[in-house]
Amino acid sequence: MQPATYGSELLGRTLAGTSDDEASPLTHMAVIPTRTAEFDDWPEWVHPQVRDAFVERGVRRPWRHQVTAADHARAGRHVVVCTGTASGKSLAYQLPILTTFAEDPTATALYLSPTKALGSDQLRATAQLITGRSAFGHLQPCAYDGDTDSELRQWARAHSRWIFTNPDMLHVGICSTHPKWRHFFGKLKYIVVDECHHYRGVFGSHTALVLQRTLRIARRYGANPVVIGASATVSNPAQALSRLIGDDVVAVTDDASPHGERTVAMWEPGFLEVSGGENDAPVRRAAGAEAARLLADFVIEGARTLCFVRSRRGVEVTAVKAKQILAEVAPELESRVAAYRAGYLADDRRTLERALADGELLGVATTNALELGVDISGLDAVVVAGYPGTVASFWQQAGRAGRRGEGSLVVMIARDDPLDTYLVHHPEALLDRPVEATVTDPTNPYVLGPHLLCAATEFPITDDEAAGWQALDVIEQLVAEGQLKRRKAGWYPSPGLDPHGDIDIRGGIGGQVLIVDATTSRLLGTVDSSRARTSVFPGAVYLHQGESFVVDELDLDDGLALAHPEEPDWTTSPREVSDVVIDSYLERRTFGPLTVAFVEVTVTSQVVGFLRKALSGEILDQVALDLPEETLPTRAVMYTLDPDAMVDAGIAPDKFPGALHAAEHAAIGMLGLVATCDRWDIGGLSTDVHPQTALPTVFVYDGFPGGAGFAERGFHAFADWIAATDVAVSSCTCDFGCPSCVQSPKCGNGNEPLDKEHAVTLLRLLGRLYGS
């Protein structure tokens, strides 16, 4: 089979199995043509043994973007190489680092990745490069993460010159004990921030402050390391890395690597024959079930396939269903499909990675744990079960196929969700849209405050450092609370302060809740207290390393959730009610009867129950809960409308609540089109009369203390956001509203009232007024 026809022919054979009496799930197909490589010569400064190591591994000449980025780093400039998947970004930082190691036997380097799998893969690649090379002496590259045992950590600290870790361990295991790393920091030449587009939202804000504290420690010990970022294609990559490290950055974005032809298909599952959704709304076949069928079909065709699923449970279910299909039609292939996700033991993850790379496994269902740069060559197809949240992530996942320069197929399956439905019917919004800029806000006081305490315990904070972090107001608050003290040399921590362990840089703010198996007293995991109410409420299904548990009790005062093992054939989703108080207006725009604002708010919310859903998507029942209220200071984008304008547009006053509520739900589902967020990162409230505005009002707010930048992005992209929401709702084929347009899986009011028809009228009114 010729590569030029591989993707379309594989897709055609899969569609041939579709029943004649059902509509084709294929909504769009596009072909991305082949791109040829552009080479450059090895830079003269590259050490001969470094060049020879790459030549022996088949790299006779580097691609042009690799040389450009390496030259910047060698010259002492912070640089980010921002090119596509499989474009050899690793070589761009390996050249200057390995050359420096060959020239300076005392130099050290630090490598950061957002996942252990990627760090392990890059460590293996580095070890293979330097094996048998005398120029590198006692380089001893070594992992230092949660999988590294204590003896090896001690050895790495004493002997390794290149540490491979992640932001979590850098924060809690290295920066917190920096005197033990004094020699390493004092000789630190380079810091690699791999897949730096992954650092967005609250996680990105935490990582930015960890990186800036790391650079601060190195400089206090006399070093001045160069930061080399590697990123999938994002908007403004230099600005994104600059926000992470607090310094100027040069970007290299012209991708000179080759890739084979890629066929991209958009796929919308059909509706179930029997409606079992909330308020009798139609329900589509689950994206995970559809993905399992495609995964099995592609494996039967001999196509090595990765299937990306958004949740850990979804990964397990998709793999099981694919294996069940194969057991019936091709039992000899059943063992060649597996699941892969975070939470597995390190040895199990490594075994799966090798089996996929070696071709022993033909199909793997995975979370985004395999989205990042683990080197898996020779894949033929990728199935993306649900839009992954950003254009950058979609192309990163899609780029896993065709890594040998051959033809490949990518199928994006829509979930029953407004944004997914919109994208499969408006593919240009995904395939032709520039990738997003990452959203981070390191000045968020709820993120910045705890890091300032960590920084003060590492070294006293000077006036210049406080100004650079825009932290004076937050420092004054910490002083008032007695956590910092002002002295002549700067701000010092109060005696006994040990703040590093209190920060969950993956997004948690506040204390931790322990999740314990009540039958064995085994610790299953932790969740930050701000998320516990919506993730480990009594009755919630909780997954841990392939095991399923049901939560029996949540004690927020003691920070404890008790669960028991159970394998239910249903899932749970929380139902929340909330109230929003406007604290201050940050920005405001008025267009006649419409006002759009970016505001600081206080959200009071309460989980009042949860839905139990069958794995196929049908609603089984709704269970009431009585959990305490939670207060969230955050930021929101809001709009108000004059009631007369709504009436003039054809929305009667008795239709206000349903129209506003439906428009709010749809807008929350569509915010991910303009901001790097998921609907579970944000919340909303609509009311026909808000007590502070005395007008019909809609809020969409960040679900993190202090905000995460998503609502601000919605404010600045309001016109595009609302226009896309209008199209998503009006083009949905349901009659009265469904999960693909205006129903929300987390609505505390049971998706009542919802008025799809008048929501479309409202959204079009907003579009006409905005900018008028």
TrEMBL record:
Domain of life: Bacteria
Organism field: Gordonia spumicola
CDD domains (UniProt xref): DEXHc_Hrq1-like, SF2_C_Hrq
Biological process according to GO: interstrand cross-link repair; nucleotide-excision repair
GO molecular function: 3'-5' DNA helicase activity; ATP binding; nucleic acid binding
Annotated protein name in UniProt: ATP-dependent RNA helicase, DEAD/DEAH box family protein
Alphabetical list of NCBIfam families matching this protein: DECH_helic (TIGR03817)
Alphabetized PROSITE patterns for the sequence: HELICASE_ATP_BIND_1 (PS51192), HELICASE_CTER (PS51194)
Cited Pfam families: DEAD (PF00270), Helicase_C (PF00271), MZB (PF09369), WHD_HRQ1 (PF22982)
